[in-house]
């Protein structure tokens, strides 16, 4: 049985839901520019309007309240509060998150504030972005601003969401901004993101001594596409970039062996101590195993591969393997020795309302049942798992896939912005309710 104070939550991120891209002094992020380049995003979608959460956050809080969730993980859009990335803050942008946080607290929902879910201010990109070592200072100043402003009401702070995804996709595979395929740039970015994490942890703690700080890592088994030795080596390399490049230096104080030599040119004396700052918990995002194949011509020596057709897959082609999730939780808990929170898990699909206007999503319900049951198995096997957040509260802008892939518990009808809780939202509400009622007669 899970502990009574187990946290059941939902997650979102700023660029994926807020919209209001030009409202009240928000500056452009790298995603605003990247999404507007034809061919980058399916269907030419952008986050300009998204779920218009910036204006509809009250309704979204009410949806969460009705579902009974105990916690909400959102991210602050750096360019909304610092339009130039540094320098003068934007009071109107800061005030938006005041309203959001106050609304959450009034609804009895704990805010989990993530500082970075990929929407870097464009102004900083123009100064080199994550390739410029100075960014650790810019990030720490931003963290100070946010912690100072909200630290009286927010205790849970997240330094980064999935640093390995935005670094690998942005600098190694050219699927996200800044759209590069350059091994040196990737290695530089990895190290600077890690330095920013360490500086951010210190900045938050200085402002908010009672803060509980963590970083969120995506952890999924990296599998070879075939049983060739070349593909096995490719999968090990992908594992190092995807699962280890950030948590190992941050928590254990060293880079994974396969990457240490590659990153060394960017490491200065004292850096690993700057990175390995004490954190309070470990965030895991997990969806499905990932696949790699050897590719001697690729800058990193391997290529990303789709899940093979002979495995069980979700409607958007991701492998279904709840046992892998169980094993990841056990392994992460053992390796890093920190309380673990699953900060994202969920299923993508392309559903639409039926003729009664309802959204039946039995595949998502099955997914959530199987994965929460795997989580219980991990807990029973000794993993110190303390919370679970579904990705996502709402359908939203799913990066390169635009609005086509829907991950929400709540359906968003984009033309009208109407929200319709799906069958999975009702299922999740029942699960949370029955957990709360456990032992209460
Ligand atoms: C994760 C991201 C999140 C969302 C889900 C489906 O990698 O953190 O923003 O796109 O995948």
Tally the beta strands.
13
**Number of structural domains:** 1
Identify the overall geometry.
globular
Question: Pairing-aware structural class of the strands and helices?
Answer: alpha/beta
Q: Considering DSSP H and I runs of 4 or more, what fraction of the residues is helical? A: 40-55%
Q: How big is the Rg? A: 20 Å
By DSSP (H or I, 4+ residues per run), the number of helices equals 16
Element order: H for helix, E for strand: EHHHEHHEHHEHHEEHHHHEEEHEHEEEH
Mean pLDDT over the full residue set: 97
CATH superfamily: Glycosidases
How far do the termini sit from each other? Answer: 17 Å
Weakly predicted, low-confidence segments: none
Bound compounds: beta-D-fucopyranose
- Which CATH architecture would you pick? Alpha-Beta Barrel
Brief summary:
The protein is α/β, with parallel strands linked by helices. The chain has helices at residues 14-17, 30-35, 53-67, 78-81, 91-106, 122-125, 135-150, 163-172, 183-207, 229-244, 247-252, 257-263, 271-275, 322-336, 362-380, 423-437; strands at residues 7-11, 71-75, 110-114, 156-161, 212-218, 222-224, 281-285, 290-294, 302-305, 340-344, 385-391, 410-413, 418-421.
């Amino acid at each position: 049985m899970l502990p009574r104070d187990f946290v059941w939550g939902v997650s979102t991120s700023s660029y994926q839901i807020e919209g209001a891209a030009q409202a009240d002094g928000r500056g452009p992020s790298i995603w605003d520019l990247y999404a507007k380049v034809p061919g980058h995003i399916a269907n030419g979608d952008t986050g300009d309007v998204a779920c218009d959460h910036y204006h509809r956050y009250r309704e979204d809080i009410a949806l969460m309240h009705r579902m009974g969730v105990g916690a909400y993980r959102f991210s602050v859009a750096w360019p909304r509060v610092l339009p130039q990335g540094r320098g003068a803050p934007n009071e109107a942008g800061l005030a938006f998150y005041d309203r959001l946080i106050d609304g959450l607290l009034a609804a009895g929902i704990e805010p989990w504030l993530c500082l970075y879910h990929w929407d870097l201010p464009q102004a900083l990109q123009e100064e080199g972005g994550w390739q410029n070592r100075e960014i650790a200072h810019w990030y720490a100043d931003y963290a100070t601003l946010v912690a100072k402003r909200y630290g009286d009401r927010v205790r849970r702070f997240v330094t980064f969401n999935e640093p390995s995804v935005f670094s690998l996709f942005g600098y190694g595979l050219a699927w996200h901004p800044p759209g590069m395929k350059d091994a040196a740039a990737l290695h530089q970015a990895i190290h600077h993101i890690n330095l920013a994490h360490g500086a951010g942890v210190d900045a938050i703690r200085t402002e908010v001594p009672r803060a509980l700080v963590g970083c969120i890592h995506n952890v999924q088994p990296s599998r070879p596409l075939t049983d060739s030795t070349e593909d096995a080596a490719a999968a090990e390399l992908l594992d190092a970039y995807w699962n280890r490049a950030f948590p190992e230096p941050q928590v254990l104080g060293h880079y994974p062996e396969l990457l240490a030599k590659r990153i060394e040119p960017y490491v200065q004396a004292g850096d690993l101590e700057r990175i390995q700052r004490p954190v309070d918990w470990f965030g895991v995002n997990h969806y499905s195993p990932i696949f790699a194949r050897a590719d001697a011509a690729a800058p990193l020596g391997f290529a990303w591969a789709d899940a093979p057709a002979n495995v069980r897959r979700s409607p958007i082609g991701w492998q279904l393997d709840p046992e892998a999730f169980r094993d990841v939780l056990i392994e992460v808990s053992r390796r890093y020795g920190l309380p673990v929170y699953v900060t994202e898990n969920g299923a993508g699909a392309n559903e639409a309302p039926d003729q009664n206007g309802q959204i039946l999503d039995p595949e998502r319900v099955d997914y959530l049942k199987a994965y929460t049951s795997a989580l219980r198995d991990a807990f029973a096997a000794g993993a110190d798992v303390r919370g679970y957040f579904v990705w996502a509260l709402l359908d939203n802008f799913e990066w390169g896939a635009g609005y086509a892939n829907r991950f929400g518990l709540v359906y968003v009808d984009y033309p009208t912005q109407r929200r319709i809780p799906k069958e999975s939202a009702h299922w999740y509400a029942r699960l949370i309710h029955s957990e709360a009622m456990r032992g209460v007669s």
